[in-house]
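Let us begin with a simple case.
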Amino acid sequence: MSNSIRGAGAAALALLSITALAVPATAAPEPTVTGVVWADTDFDGVREPGEAGVADITIAAYRADNTEVASAVTNKAGHYALKLSGGPYKLRPKALAYAKTITRPNVGDDARDSDFAWGTWETAEFSCAPSCPKFDLGLVERKQDIALAVAPAEVSARKGQSFSVELTASNLGTVPNGGDWIEAGFKEGLQVTSATGDGWACRVDPSAGQYLFCRSEADHNPGTDRPKVRVELTPTADSGDITMDFHVAGFRRSESVFPNNAAALRVRVG
């Protein structure tokens, strides 16, 4: 066999080998934001063993102008995935049943906590460049529960001897409350002389028979107390037992639990 034939054969074999080994280039995977929606049964903001995923919850992505760009529905295990690129975006649940609300956010364990803020129900702003972050969402049963306590609850005083009590409004529910008010009506033999508290606007209205009204419009998050309201009172009766009832209520949202909305102050005069 001539050298020219051998050369041509070797070149053909080399070309065949290169062609056979060539692998077509694959497109880079599209960035995807993922997460899980779960039932936070103990309302601690952290997913724990036994807390199941929640199916059929819609998670949507929005641009800064609130334009929706994509949405996905959670599967049986509570997982969702949204293909996104660029940004910035925010995520928010859509059409959540009224009986449900979101759990306390960002408690510290980013791998297991809930990443959607109270109030807005949104995540922090993010971009998918080159990859997307992960956002989880815990859901709880909605409960609106604002409670009131007075301390001390019993006081002994003489006629004309002023004393003070402190009122504490607590959010024992699962929903941030967009404002609270405290009120108390006239009690014969007991005069309200003043009421003050950080973040509270209070007035004592003599024309309404010593009607006390205090209002705070700052958000009141679950598991927290508002600053105390200090109320000064003066007995005007010579003697006797007088009971004054203070009441608290939240506005802009519906109350679910009523028995703890009132706090009773008993004053023994004499």
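The second case is a distinct protein. As before, the sequence precedes its structure tokens.
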Amino acid sequence: DLAGSYTVDIDDGYVTEYDEDGEEVGSGY
């Protein structure tokens, strides 16, 4: 989804997902 983005923690691979407003919409492994 190009409207949002995600980051992946380098150390443990934990993913945090954000919507187009920069609000956190989900996270997990």
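The chain has one domain: 1-29. DSSP finds no helices and three strands in the chain.
Keep these points in mind for the review questions at the end of the chapter.
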